[in-house]
């Protein structure tokens, strides 16, 4: 009886560990999307589409810049709890204040070119 109880406990523990491993969050899987229209310095306007993972952390920011849709990925190397940075393969960058799935419609942004030229500055949500 005691041996059966030990085996049952081991099986239950293993099943629990497997279930929790399957429930882990995929940091790059987009589970929520949102769009923000911005008014920027100089009368410019830009629309940014954000993608967030299940933890509410941004994964992508997409904007039409220099005539093309730029899909910028979250830059873990530069981002922290205070600032969020995104970068695409060509070097276009979007910088924002703290950005989560809960506050993304309140954050201001700036977009720069690969040559560090400011394309959209002081962009505030409309």
UniProtKB/TrEMBL annotation:
Record Pfam families: Nm-ACP (PF24574)
Coiled coil (residue ranges): none
Domain ACP-like: from-to ranges: 32-125
Keyword Signal in record: yes
Signal peptide start-end: 1-23
Entry keywords, A to Z: Signal
Protein name, per record: Adhesin
Organism for this UniProt entry: Conchiformibius kuhniae
